Amino acid sequence: MKKISLCLVSLFLLISCAKPNVHDPNAQIKVDVEGDKYVIPLNHIVRPDTGSYASFETDMGHGYFFWPSGRGLNNSDKDPNILEHDDDIIKFDWTAIDSGIVGNDMPKRVEIIKESNRKDSTQDKFNLEAYVDNSNDSTLSYIGHVYPDSPATFRCWIAENEDQNSLCQMEYLHPVYNNNVLIHFDAKNLSDWQAINAMAIDYIEKWHQD
After folding, report:
1. What is the largest CA-CA distance in the chain?
2. Separation CA 128–CA 122 (nearest Å)
3. What distance in Å separates the CA atoms of residue 94 and residue 159, rounded to the nearest whole number?
4. What span, in angstroms and rounded, lies between the C-alpha atoms of 144 and 150?
5. Rounded distance between C-alpha atoms, residue 29 and residue 52, angstroms
6. What is the pLDDT of residue 195?
7. Cα 199 from Cα 66, distance rounded (Å)
8. Which are the contacts of 164, defined by CB distance < 8 A and separation ≥ 6?
9. What pLDDT digit, counting tens, does each position of 144-186 carry?
10. Is 65 left (phi over 0), alpha (psi -120 to 50) or beta?
11. Among 19-23, 58-62, 126-130, 176-180, where is mean pLDDT lowest?
């Protein structure tokens, strides 16, 4: 009887310490973003066949989804990276709620864009004002508002060759949660920036644990 009990205890420890099954489409991991607790589907962070984490702590949350379906990664997807990736994948990062990011003065950043770039009204679109880099015409900046009192900056890089993607990075301070939000997407999806942001925020709220 004693041997049986020891075996059961050992089995329980093995099960409780096991990492998520990377082949399980429902695998989830616990993420601690400087005190904010999240439970995130593993395939919204890595491809299921590339590895797993039982849990981890970070200073910035991180996730991926495909636009417009919203699905996570699967084994047939390319490994997402900065310049070479599926052009329908969205990468988003966020800091802790009420993190009070030092130096994130978005109105000041907006002024810097206006002062250091050339306004080009011919390229205004999607409720965004366009500014061209004075030293590099292949880099565009945009200014817009995610929410009425929350200015956002956009930086778009035009691909230098056919093996790269033209990417845009959107950044703003969330007016309610006071956390910094960064969203990367292919420039072809710029027209959907508001809906892409809404989907990213929906995921962050869904994964957050009260």
Report:
1. 82
2. 11
3. 26
4. 9
5. 8
6. 97
7. 10
8. 83, 84
9. 999 888 899 999 987 666 666 688 999 999 989 989 999 999 9
10. beta
11. 19-23
Indicate the pairing of strand 180-186 with strand 89-94: antiparallel
DSSP string of 88-130, one letter each residue? TEEEEEE--TT---TT--HHHHHHHHHHHEEE-GGG-BTTBEE
Of the pLDDT bands very low, low, confident and very high (cuts 50, 70, 90), residue 141 is very high
Q: CA 88 to CA 67: how far, in whole Å?
A: 5
Confidence bin at 48 (pLDDT 50/70/90): confident
- N residues, the chain: 210
10 sits in the region (left: phi over 0; alpha: psi -120 to 50; else beta) called alpha
Its sign, for the CA torsion 41, 45, 51, 53, is negative
Write the CB contacts of 179 (distance below 8 Å, at least 6 apart in sequence): 94, 95, 96, 97, 98, 99, 101, 173
**Amino acid identity, residue 188?**
K
